Amino acid sequence: MPPTASERAAIEFVDVSYVAPGGQEVLSRLHLSARGGEILVLLGRSGSGKTTALKLVNRLLLPSAGEVRVNGVANSEGDVIRLRRSIGYVIQEVGLFPHFTVERNIGLVPTIEGWSGERIRHRISELLQLVGLDAELASRYPHQLSGGQRQRVGVARALAADPGILLMDEPFGALDPLTRAELQQEFLALQQRLRKTVVFVTHDLREALRLGSRIALLEAGQLVTVLAPRDFLRSNDPLVSAYVRAFGDGPEWPGNNRGRE
């Protein structure tokens, strides 16, 4: 029986290594896949290779060895611009163009793709509602928004051309704890509706447990393990256990009260 859409790998790292220009090996023979429609969390301390792995997906970096596949095709094949436009990218600093209004930021990729003005306006309106922003904010500039609002605009922009894949590099890390928790919950609700394939980078185990379908733990450029959140909490792997101890295991943990495996 052929694999279902949720079983097929949307992203595959096939024995991928990356050596930085200075000669440091940042990733070593990474073999990992993200299934269609899941949130795969890349967890690890600073310097573990999480962001490097993310940048290899949309060819912001090229592997020194191995192959990255997107929907079964090596991402080294074909047009890199077309590849990047087919993948949404959200970062901690948001990266909004400060001289563009909210609507121009969100509509950037559809405009480049040649969508009609009416279609773009409809998509902007749809996305503002989807990420919980008032339509009146469309004419404002990024500096006129709160941090949480800017991050919502960043998510809306990443979704503008309806990509099947989202890459998210600690998107909520710079926000205050309350706003961060709100956006995490809103993002989960959004994902339940859209079912994108998401690769989400974080160093925060609580965030990984709350958002991840599976958690891939990286350490010093190597993959330690890939586990569902509940299994991560129960793992006897020494490094996994060290993470659990470091963050504490109380009843407030999202992993202890969640129904998802």
SSE topology:
Blueprint: E1 9-19, E2 25-35, E3 39-43, H1 50-57, E4 65-70, E5 73-74, H2 80-85, E6 87-91, H3 102-106, H4 108-112, H5 117-130, H6 147-159, E7 165-169, H7 177-194, E8 197-202, H8 205-211, E9 214-219, E10 222-227, H9 229-234, H10 238-247
Biggest sheet strand line-up? 6-7-8-3-9-10
Number of continuous helical runs: 10
Beta-strand content: 15-25%
Unreliable sequence segments: 250-261
The radius of gyration computed from the alpha-carbon positions, rounded to a whole number of angstroms, is: 18 Å
Category from helices, strands and their pairing = alpha/beta
Number of strands: 10
Q: Taking all residues together, what is the mean pLDDT?
A: 90
Following the backbone from N to C, one meets helices and strands in this order, namely EEEHEEHEHHHHEHEHEEHH
> What is the helix content?
25-40%
> What is the overall shape?
globular
| Main beta sheet | 6 strands, mixed
User: Distance N terminus to C terminus?
Assistant: 24 Å
